[in-house]
Amino acid sequence: MYFTSLPDHSEPGFDEQLHFSKFRKHNIIFNAQSERSYCEHHIGCLSVKTIWKGEEWYGIDNHQLAVRPGQFLILNDDQDYSSRVDKPGGAGILSVFFKKEFASSIFRDALYSEEALLDNPFEPGGKTLEFFQTLYDMDPRLQQKLLGLIQALNKYGYEVNRVDEHLFFLLHDLIRFHKREAHRAGQVSAIKPGTRMEIYKRICIAKDLLHSNYMNKPDLSGISMAACLSVPQLIRQFKAVFQITPHQYLTRIRLANAARLLKETSASVHEITWMCGFENASAFSRAFKSEHGVQPVHFRKMS
User: pTM value?
Assistant: First the structure.
């Protein structure tokens, strides 16, 4: 099923039970522009969510995180979450929901040996893969698959076989990201695999808070409390995984967004300083030159 508008959950007579029942029966794609939307509570199926304009906020396990252009989020089966769009200008949203049986059959094909698949070619898939529910950076390979899916939908409409083939390759790409995250989890300094996995999940909470609130002044002690890690443990394990400290990571996020604003907008250097959370224009210019080799104004001219 393909939708180019989001449902209004506040509309009188809106049947939430009927709406959410569709997610158990079909693969569903939303490609919509929304000025304002809010879903207070949803227990969904496996889904991937990204933004091509603006931002959308998600509430997951008592944490709020923002999905912005160049990022995506994977939510697992039966994950309880909320979502909202409420910033001026709205958001361009792309969400893909995978029917449980469809996803599990593809994961079985991807993760089982050819011999096992030959022995039981029509055996239904088991549980779907458990993804890390964290913000991922979009790469050209995944972006091309999403673009190809939308182009096919816009050109041919929702032809089930055609769409399912696109979703097949999309899910295989998500497995690639899962393996990358599992490798990162292995960088955590701990002996037991279960401990490494738990610490990595908590580090991801800290990372996502930095991404979601980079324009403010995230407090390290507050982030450590949200991630349930002491400040020393957070700094040590964060650096073990990402090779930089949380503060250095925050500066990198701010500079990346500043570079995007310099390329894509006409905002002044002073405005971008404020928008990206730097204390003053001088501090911003020094940090930007250290990262990119040129002052912000020269970077804009080169771009």
Answer: 0.87
